[in-house]
Design brief:
- The complex is a heterodimer of chains A (115) and B (113).
- Chain A is mainly beta and 115 residues long.
- Chain A contains no helices and eleven strands.
- Helix content of chain A is 0%, strand content 49%.
- Chain A is globular and about 40 Å long.
- Chain B has 113 residues and is mostly beta strands.
- Chain B contains no helices and twelve strands.
- The radius of gyration of chain B is 14 Å and the shape is globular.
- Classes of the chains: A mainly beta (115), B mainly beta (113).
- The interface between A and B is medium-sized, with 26 and 23 residues.
């Protein structure tokens, strides 16, 4: 079974530029998550989708971050404009359904460096 | 709000040593508790979990017991191997409402031969 795919793996941009990350979840997984992991910290949930609807985006900085889940499958996360503090690893995860009885499977992440 | 506190790392052990990584949590109600592991160059993966008080999660020789009275979920392994070198994250998920994972900061473990 293929895992969660993410691209690109690495991205370096200047502050105030825009950037987009892509995620392809495991086939059949209805729930998709985007996490931000700053160096030395644990992942923090940015947004959770159930199919193509948003379940939780309470920690998404909506003035600069946006996300969508096309047709309930692939998802993109965008940052515009980027700030220095956005330097982090962006993790995508998916699960069959939401909730503690459904394991979240994580992708390899995209490491973003903002200069 | 909900939070997880892990012991500070890094932790360095010799092969076959006993491992304990402490984890305590703050949450309303009775959350489910998890340990995730991130091996070098790989993505996060679930190591074990427990969903109610006194449950013991176990996998690959690792164990953790859900202690409601001390709000703890310490990770233990009797004899570590070099291949256990990784970063370990404790996490919780509250039931009801926003069922999202809340992670600790992670503890880096290095096991030397």
């Amino acid at each position: 079974e293929a895992g969660v795919a993410q691209s690109p793996r690495y991205k370096i941009i200047e502050k105030r530029q825009s950037v987009a990350f892509w995620c392809n979840p495991i086939s059949g997984h209805a729930t998709l998550y985007w996490y931000q992991q700053i160096l030395g910290q644990g992942p923090k949930l940015l947004i959770q989708f159930q199919n193509n609807g948003v379940v939780d985006d309470s920690q998404l900085p909506k003035d600069r971050f946006s996300a969508e889940r096309l047709k309930g499958v692939d998802s993109t996360l965008k940052i515009q404009p980027a700030k220095l503090e956005d330097s982090a690893v962006y993790l995508c995860a998916s699960s069959f359904r939401a909730g503690p009885d459904n394991e979240q499977f994580f992708g390899p992440g995209t490491r973003l460096t903002v200069l | 709000g909900d939070s997880v506190t892990q012991m500070e790392g890094p932790v360095t052990l010799s092969e076959e040593a006993f491992l304990t990584i402490n984890c305590t949590y703050t949450a309303t109600g009775y959350p489910s508790l998890f340990w995730y592991v991130q091996y070098p160059g790989e993505g996060l993966q679930l190591l074990l979990k427990a969903t109610k008080a006194d449950d013991k999660g176990s996998n690959k020789g690792f164990e953790a017991t859900y202690r409601k009275e001390t709000t703890s979920f310490h990770l233990e392994k009797g004899s570590v191997q070099v291949s256990d070198s990784a970063v370990y994250f404790c996490a919780l998920m509250a039931r009801g409402g926003s069922e999202k994972l809340v992670f600790g900061k992670g503890t880096k473990l290095t096991v030397n031969p």
